[in-house]
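Apologies for my clumsy wording, but could you write out the amino acids of a protein and the tokens describing how it folds?
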Amino acid sequence: MKKCLILLLLITIKAVGLAQEKPIRLGVAGLTHGHVGWILGRENQTDMVMVGIAEPNKILANKLSKEFGFPMTMVFDSMEEMIAKTKPEAVAAFGNIKDHLKVVQECAPKGIHVMVEKPLATTFDDAVKIANLAKTYKVHVLTNYETSWYETNVKALDELKNGTIGELRKVIIRDGHKGPKNIGVSQEFLEWLTDPVLNGGGAITDFGCYGANLMTWIMNGTKPLSVTAVTQQLQADNNPNVDDDATIILTYPNQMAILEPSWNWPIGRKDMELYGTKGAIYADNPTQLRIRISKGYSQFTEETFLLPQRKKPFNDPFSVFTAVIKEELKLPPFNVYSLENNMVVIEILQAAIESAKSGKTIHLTK
């Protein structure tokens, strides 16, 4: 009898373990985003399994099917059909930014969690609607940024909190590349990326969101007092309907941030500089960080750190998404993925667009 009870207990423990290891069923909404390869090429991970794709453009779907090896039988014309046929627990949005609201409207009432590619929305009104849906139906809505995977950004904030460079005074964040057409993005991606409605703007939204996201994280959710922005169109032939270069200035009670999103950088970049009362931190790229400490007027010491990738689950956005859904990970308030952070991001971007159009500084309400 005792042996039977032990055997039954072992079987129960094993069954519970297998249940916990069961992969999250993921649906993909859209294939036009250039970042979609991040999920289509994620075959070697077992925490999440792709069960369906919603994409009406069958030429595009067939092309990606051949490239990544997924069967066309899992491609559906609409999200409604994909959800009904495949019963996903989560959906990753890889279409235009304007459609993020539609994705959440379709998924949230069914209890389906959502991860969107940055930014969260094209307007603050849409962001509020998304947040209300997430709250009403108790689902997670995360926003993915490549810079969320950078160990250098994490170390930079840790060093700042530890007082290494003293009190923070200024942050400069630069993001971008040569421009969508110049780097050869797909036609399907280019069509909406350079559309002021579907993308919400040009470089100001495409890359301005990175700086707004990191700054909101650094400031632990504190909104800037004011937003001032200037935009230019330096490649009118390539980007006739949107800006391709922007400078955004954010002011806080004791700090200032300068965001420089652009489709005119000669070399692609995603870097950040933190300036304090005692020194500076330079997060040059995903793996290299430098710390300079002042030693007089212009002298300084410099230490360079070559860092590894972030540890699991933070090395991969879909691992983070899975861990949050399974309640293995609780993101802190105003974490870079969080809905709270990305609500502030959209408020900043909307103010920046308004400032650039009006030529005036926009003051945000608390």
